[in-house]
Amino acid sequence: MRTLTVNTSNQCYSIHIGRGTYQMLPRLMKEVGVEKDRKLMVITDSSVAPLYGQSLQASLRAEGYQVGMTVFPAGEESKNLSVVERVIGDCLQFGLDRSSVVLALGGGVVGDLAGFVAATYMRGIPFIQLPTTLLAHDSSVGGKVGVNHALGKNYIGAFHQPLMVVFDVDVLRSLPARQVHSGLAEVAKHALIWDVSFVEWLEAHAEELLALSPERLTEAIFRGCEVKSAVVSQDEKELGIRSILNYGHTIGHALEAVSGYRVYTHGEAVAIGMAGASRLSVRLLGAPGELVDRTEQLLRRLRLPIRYAENWPLPALLEAMKKDKKARGGQYTFVLSRKLGQVEMVRGIEEAEIVQTLKEISTQ
Question: Which residues are in the 3-dehydroquinate synthase N-terminal domain (predicted)?
Answer without folding.
Answer: 71-181
